[in-house]
Amino acid sequence: MKTKKTIIPVLCTVLLLTACGSGETAVNVPATTTAVSENKTSDTEAVATTEAYERNNPNLAAIDGGGQDFHIITRELSADYCRQIDDITAEALDGDVLNDALFERNAKVMDKYNVRFQTQRDADVSAKIRKTVMAGDAEWDLFFEGVAPNVQLASQNLLLSLDTLEAVDITRPYWCRGMMDDLSFGGQHYLGVSDLTLQAYFSSGIVYFNKSLAAGYDLENPYDLVNDGKWTLDKLLSMCKSVSADLNGDGVYDEKDQYGITYNNFAWQIMFYGSGLKMVEKDKDGKLYFNGADERVISTLQRLMPISGDPTVCLYSENYKHLGGNYRIDVCQNAFFEGRALFWLEAMYGVTTLRNMELDFGILPVPKYSDEQKDYSSFIHTVHASSVAVPLTVRDPALSGSILEELSYLSSGGAREAFLEKNLKGKISRDNESAKSIDIIIDNICTDYTLLLTSYGLTIDGDMRNLMNKSSTDIMSVFEKGAVKYEKILTKFNDAFGTEG
């Protein structure tokens, strides 16, 4: 299924901007003011936010697009809660804070560059890009796809390096620099994550915690631990062991009892990447290699895997396949929603399922492996997270590059703040401390080719899930058995780029 939409004609755009203020003034005035006011932020903080935003302005010269259509393709939204945000499409002002911020942002860009955005949603963006580029067509000027699928397209030499676009400057603060460093190969960046790709932020791994349950057991305040840099795996586990209970007294822990933590087998990713480590690293020439011999990687995994097998600590949803349906999610969500789990490991997009939760909950970053770790670290789901790219056969690289940079910059004002306001701060998350946690999470997102190359044939993710299902610490034997296969896949990927430093 696909839909094609014209966002707004240029004439209407001019009228809209005239109503708000004209020309360059409209481009340089962020839409943050409204969101700041709604959040009751002080006037001083609002001014500081506005000034910081304006300082980041790339001040790009306008390129005249001649009033032509600018073609953008993006993904269909998913039926479940995993992919809810369309980073680019907004047909009209409708009173929704995020939609209206996207609409106003798009209108400013279309007016400045004299183009009309034509956007299309499609269930398989990769197939569309692959088909048009291989045919030598210049059908698409910009497109949005999952992070891992875009890495796959890059390996097939179908994407233009963003580093070849003069207007694009990934050192600017509205680009997610940590992600961009992680995503580079051979010193080049073929896909981008910035304040434009809000679904990437929404796909980051987090910890939900039941504030009522924590208070009832007189536990340490996790927010204080986060702020003091002492929110660690040890702290989380000690809290988990304090609250687990056989509620019906039948001597058996099942899906109806109370637990310290709940998750399914993809949570190995959330926990492991909280450590700041990676299983696939880059050498000095930018080539990928398997980092399985790193003792820190092995010891971290050995520490994490057994948790799923301790029924006095963890409600592990993979043990409830017999319940049928979407048991992997439902078992966890129900336990947390009903107040029978202190912590729930899930991506940020899971927050929307808690809108009607009566019990009070908070949001935390993933704990550090130890307090010796400098920063918190947050993984993103590499399929559900969005990224932006430019097809190799794009008709006007300079125009696409300028529009990409302008969209990213403008998103750092209105769109990013509207996303946080609508989905998280002051709406679903219920306290200022959670809002601070969200900033920590977003500012520290990362990725790893361990996850990015799953569809390329790398089986590490599946191997780790199997170990978690068994609560096994036998990491070394799995790595030894798979090392040759892993390296073969990584060599194939490196060779696809002719990687150079």
Description:
- By secondary structure, the protein is of the alpha/beta class.
- Helices cover 43% and strands 13% of the residues.
- It contains 20 helices and 14 strands.
- It has helices at residues 10-20, 23-28, 32-38, 43-55, 97-113, 125-134, 147-155, 177-183, 198-202, 211-216, 222-227, 233-243, 267-273, 295-304, 327-337, 397-423, 432-443, 449-452, 460-470, 475-497; strands at residues 2-6, 68-75, 115-122, 142-146, 205-210, 259-263, 280-282, 288-290, 314-316, 341-347, 361-364, 378-379, 386-389, 445-446.
- It has a five-stranded mixed sheet, sandwiched between helices.
- The chain is globular and about 75 Å long.
- Residues 1-41 have low confidence and may be disordered.
How are the elements arranged and paired?
Elements: E1 2-6, H1 10-20, H2 23-28, H3 32-38, H4 43-55, E2 68-75, H5 97-113, E3 115-122, H6 125-134, E4 142-146, H7 147-155, H8 177-183, H9 198-202, E5 205-210, H10 211-216, H11 222-227, H12 233-243, E6 259-263, H13 267-273, E7 280-282, E8 288-290, H14 295-304, E9 314-316, H15 327-337, E10 341-347, E11 361-364, E12 378-379, E13 386-389, H16 397-423, H17 432-443, E14 445-446, H18 449-452, H19 460-470, H20 475-497
Parallel strand pairs: 2-3, 2-4, 6-9, 6-10, 12-14
Antiparallel strand pairs: 1-3, 4-13, 5-10, 5-11, 7-8
